Amino acid sequence: MTSAHVPPNATSAAPPVILFGDLMRVWPYDRVAYAVGMSVRAVRTVERRHRTTNCEAGTAQALPPPPPATPPTTPAGFDSFTVAAIRRKVQSKFAAKEVMTIASLTEKLIIDGIFPMATSDTSVWRLLHDMGFRYSSATQSVVRVSVTVREPSSAGTRRFFEPPPRYTVNFLSKMAKRGPMDMFIRPKHPVAEHTNNSEADDSDVIETEVLPAKRIRTGFTRKYDSSYIQFGFVATNDGGVPKPQCVICGDVLANYSMKPSNLKRHLNTKHKEMSSKSKEFFERKHVDLKGRQKQIFEVSHTNTSALRASYKVALRVAKAKKPYTIGETLVIACIKDVCTEMLGEPAARKVAQVPLSNDTIARRIYDLAHDMEYQLIIKLAKYFSLQLDVCTDVANQAVLMVYVPCEHEGDLKEEFFFSASLPTKTTSSEVFKTVSDYIVNKCGLDFKFCVGVCTDGAAAMIGRHSGVVTQIKALAPECKSTHCFLHRESLATKKMSTELNSVLSEVVKIVNHVKANALNSRLFTALCDDMGADHKQLLLHADVRWLSRGKVLSRVFELRNELVLFLQDKKPNWSQLFRDVHWLAKLAYLADIFAIFNDLNISMQGRMASCFTMADKIDGQKRKLEAWKNRVSRDCYDMFHQLATVIADAGEDLNVASLRNVIKEHLINLADHFQHYFPAEDPRKGTGWIRNPFMPLRDDFDLSVTMEDKLLELAADEGLKTSFETSTSLASFWIKVKAEYPELSEIALKTLLPFPSTYLCETGFSTMSVIKTKYRNCMDIHSPLRVALSSIEPRLDKLINKKQAHPSH
Q: Which string of DSSP letters, residue by residue, matches 125-183?
């Protein structure tokens, strides 16, 4: 053996070999198969091939007598059972692609109990060499090469032969890893793989190389022939591959079956009574098959279209906040009538297949809601803010409603987040648990990225110790809480002096007297109609409605002449109030001032309002209050149009000095209340660069030196300046520059994300009151509420693909 086959410090004595033929003669087939890792059938085949090869070559006329009934051993002193165990151990190492050295392998075999403690590395190497392994000096590890096969001659002298290459031991080991029948397939193009490190260590030893496994033939496609129609088969296209289809049963066979023998066998086996039919018979069957396929396609296509139409109708029903029964009671009947008149009876029968029953509409709305919810969760950005409020529905069920902003088509968009029913109490712990379960468990968001929470200012929401906002801030250090601007404006204008409050109370009593009695309401309407008034009805007052006070006062002042006539018979005291100039002047002032506050409240409502715009409007109202105090001191009432008219008409009958003191006192109280509910903490302070990044730097900008440099670089870009001027909103501009200026964009978006008011929640509760009425007080409100309030378009194609289309019953 050459030095290339021997590891360092190993002797160069000729290694012994394991006689494969001896194993065949001593052990039964199953033990030999287990030792060499083959099947019993393969071992039998090898033995037969060895016998045939020896006889044909003249190397032996008969098999030699069997050796003694003891397992053969190697010169190293290991019996064949140990050899088989070592073979399996080494092959498992190769299967796991582990690098083996002689020392590590010896240590492992000793630990496993296969070798005794005194075994040397040289003995292990000799045994491995006999088993067909060599030593690689390049990798310093054991490698696997071809295996030598020896057979003893029958004459007693050792004669050697080279068995057929396909049946060497190494090849059979490889075949054992393949399928059980693969070894019997003859390769058409055998090519020998010669190895450089498989040198013979003895002149009378022949080593054989292993041929590669058979190459699998792929890419062959059979073509259809027109003569196959005589067997009852035509061609159908399946993904570009022609396949035979039976015109009788419609079965489609594989492409490899497209040959006359297989087609004829199908005809004789499954349709034996038609095997003698003529070619014209099968051609007629082909025409019938195409007709059935067309009919099936039309039915399936119609069903799919009906399914899509069902989803679209359900979407419109939910958007219109209508009952589910409207589909089968009104919509489908109207559509059928229109189609009958415009398109005829066939179109009406086709439209009637659209499923629009009550339960179907409910299931469709449920699917639409879940698809919208899934899309919203995907669109949520890293940072988010919340707008939440709680209200009670018609069934006395407490409902929590939450909104969240998300990025959509390069801009921020306010979306309905979720609604949930609170089972018992509406405490802060219950509200926070519901919000946390949805945000953390269902959406996978982290509260530490919450930058703002807007509430209505209830104690459960903004409690100092255990409020919802307090619990969220404990998890989100950057979170800023916002008390709804609309609620604060309403609270600031609620309190007034005793004189003005008495006027408001008397107005409310007069309105209730007229509106509470049906006869009085009809009589007053007839009176207004006869007198040609612009309005014929009074408006009821409700404290919970922000705009109610101003509208009621304005309507009463406009219909003051009609009320004088209507009340003079039944309520002369109230009728006399409208003839009192001082009382009428106070009424005119209240109507004017609350009409102004109504306009302010309306201007702060709406979607996509920011804290910047809200602060601008409140600051403007504060300044106007200061200016009005100065004007009233000079007896200037031009900003109050109806009051100015009363003063001009009254002349000397009105005590202007007394009125001035009342109005001035009220304006001073309003200014103080606005300052209390809107303190000096201005959200615009230090963030002017967000509203206009191209303005000069100021000292109040809360930016680091690095951020200031980035801002100066952005301000010098004329292209971005043009983009800023054409942007639809501040958020769209900062989202657009996010890739170029990520730090500035992140600060700006975190400032723009918080909600300034709970306007969206209030509109959501109004929608809920329309959907869940006393006639539908047991319905699950959450799915129809999401479809009605969300602006996300549902993915109808995806929903339809998950459903099996069925026509209406």
A: HHHHHHTTEEEETTTTEEEE---------TTSS-------GGG-HHHHHHHHTS-TTGG
